[in-house]
Design a protein that fits this description.
By secondary structure, the chain is an alpha+beta fold. About 30% of the residues lie in helices and about 30% in strands. The protein has 5 helices and 7 strands. It has helices at about 5-15, 55-60, 90-100, 105-110, 115; strands at about 20, 35, 40, 45, 65-70, 75-80, 120-125. Strands 2-1-5-6-7-4-3 form a 7-stranded antiparallel beta sheet. The chain is globular. It starts with 5 loop residues before the first helix and ends with a strand.
Length: about 130
């Protein structure tokens, strides 16, 4: 698989939100969903605040691929599950805290729950 460029990582990492479209079984793109996105090193992550029951998360299961737009980056991606990420979970939590911790706890807290942590996806460029 391809890697993000330094510029893409910077642009996505500083973007407030990301638009994600997953591929349907027939290869067409679903409607975009807007969500928070974080960067950890050379990787980019999103989480479903509704866990594996979130509609957009379930949509990522069809083809494990889709398209994202954030910070001027427009890219086809693969969705890689990292729910049992060992030391990754606290790092992604910290990235969310650093980027979005300014929001009230009832909003920010939704991305660091066990339910959301279990629905963590790494976005990998294709």
């Amino acid at each position: 698989m391809a890697a993000w460029t330094a510029e893409e990582l910077e642009r996505i990492g500083t973007a407030e939100e990301l638009n994600l479209q997953s591929l349907r079984g027939d290869g067409s793109l679903r409607d975009p969903v807007t969500m928070w996105v974080v960067r950890d090193g050379d990787d980019v992550y999103v989480r479903s605040v509704k866990g594996s029951q979130g509609p957009w998360f379930r949509g990522t299961r069809a083809q494990l691929a889709g398209h994202v737009r954030a910070g001027g980056v427009d890219k086809d991606v693969a969705f890689v599950d990292v729910a049992d990420g060992g030391d990754l979970t606290p790092r992604v939590d910290a990235a969310y805290r650093a980027k979005y911790g300014r929001y009230p706890d009832d909003i920010f807290g939704s991305v660091v729950t066990p339910q959301a942590q279990a629905a963590t996806i790494r976005l990998v460029p294709r």
